[in-house]
Amino acid sequence: MKLQIVALLDENYISCLESMQKTVCKRYKAYKCTPSLYIPMVTTLNSDVETLNKILYKVLEPYKKFKVNVVNSLHVNLDSKLCSIGISQMGYISRLNRAILEGLEQHNISTENSIINNPAFDFNVPLTSCNYTLKKLSTQGSVPFVKSQPTDSILNFTRISKLEIWKMNGSKFDSVIKSFELRQF
Predict the structure, then answer these.
(1) DSSP conformation letters of 91-155
(2) Cα dist from 107 to 55, 58, 59, 96, 103, whole Å
(3) 13 pLDDT exceeds 50?
(4) Strand 172-181 with 38-44, pairing
(5) Where are the domains of the chain?
């Protein structure tokens, strides 16, 4: 069974990304496809839910809610047909992802699209599904969201409040299996 571990954003900090989502939808005439904004962390190929629960509970025990930086770059992924905005790889999110991957590796759970399998892996928040205009942008690599700033500049920040395990049903990502709330400050 194909499962995806995602980081969900805090409700209090999500308004900035929702306004960015509306801007991208208007600018490129796309429609909003994601019911909730999330950061995909790891996709497991054939894993047991019980083992995954144990690994994530052990890894997430010391972590509190943390902030991540939103970077000025739009990425188009033709495999998943999604346009997403970049997230900075510095800080707790990369450490948390590395700890999850090490735990999965110790239990011989195979993963795809992770830092180990793909060194160019970037964290991102999917905003819209692709149309023809956005697919043309994919040939350019990453495109700046704010055209007057470079693509590596930080636009804003958001906070990660919890991690969830989702069952992937084709293009539907709304099958929540387990939710892990991070501790308060």
Answers:
(1) SHHHHHHHHHHHHHHHTT--EESSTTT-TT--EEEEEEE--HHHHHHGGGS-B-SSTTS-TTSEE
(2) 9, 13, 13, 17, 7
(3) yes
(4) unpaired
(5) 3-181
Tokens (6 digits) for 146? 């704010």
pTM for this structure?
A: 0.85
For 88, the token pair is 């900075």
Q: What is the mean pLDDT of residues 14-26?
A: 84
Q: At a CB cut-off of 8 Å and minimum separation 6, what does 105 contact?
A: 116
* pLDDT one-digit tens code per residue, 123-165: 888 888 777 666 666 666 677 777 767 777 777 888 999 999 9
Q: What is the assigned CATH class of domain 3-181?
A: alpha beta
Mean pLDDT of 158-184: 82
Side-chain-side CA neighbours of 101 within 13 Å: the count stands at 17
